[in-house]
């Protein structure tokens, strides 16, 4: 009588660990803020999970957008896998307050395990506008000039010039926080005008630490005043 021996092997599924996110080799607490970074910087993050069987799938997301990443898999003696996934992204203004999520999934769990960090991004101002009188003014009167600088984080500083000379007049400054975390700076000055200012040009210059660190020129706009 022939006896057949049939060997059966079973794969016991095991859930992966909750993913951990690291930056520059330092673990970030789930839900924490990483940064600050200047606009244009390259952000590199690593996500690690271990103990999963079969090998977990690791993916990165910014909102609903899946990000390109590279993964390295290490299989342990017990058949479980450790996965390290790296994502690199060049930060842009659209990344203000972005949540970068690492998702880990395999057959042993019903829903993906998720860890995330929030990006603290600093950006230069996006626009500058100068407002003043549209009609000619009489010599000896005061005119109100307003400079509005939007989209900066940290807030931009405004500097006023009469032609090439810095105005030695105390400006009133108001800061407004926008929904994206940037600031609007509203700088207002009251300037006495004389006939010397006829067809003169007043300038407002706006800058912040981001433009200075990157060696970029400040925003600059002018306003011509007609004096009678």
Automatic annotation (TrEMBL):
Q: Which SUPFAM superfamilies match?
A: Immunoglobulin
Stretches assigned to coiled coil:
none
Q: Name all Ig-like domain ranges.
A: 16-115, 125-224
**Which Pfam families does this UniProt record tie to the protein?**
C2-set_2
Claim: Disulfide bond is one of the keywords in the record: yes
Domain of life, source organism: Eukaryota
Q: Which UniProt keywords apply?
A: Disulfide bond
Alphabetical list of InterPro entries matching this protein? CD80_C2-set, Ig-like_dom, Ig-like_dom_sf, Ig-like_fold
Name of this protein? Ig-like domain-containing protein
Q: Source taxonomy lineage? A: Eukaryota, Metazoa, Ecdysozoa, Arthropoda, Chelicerata
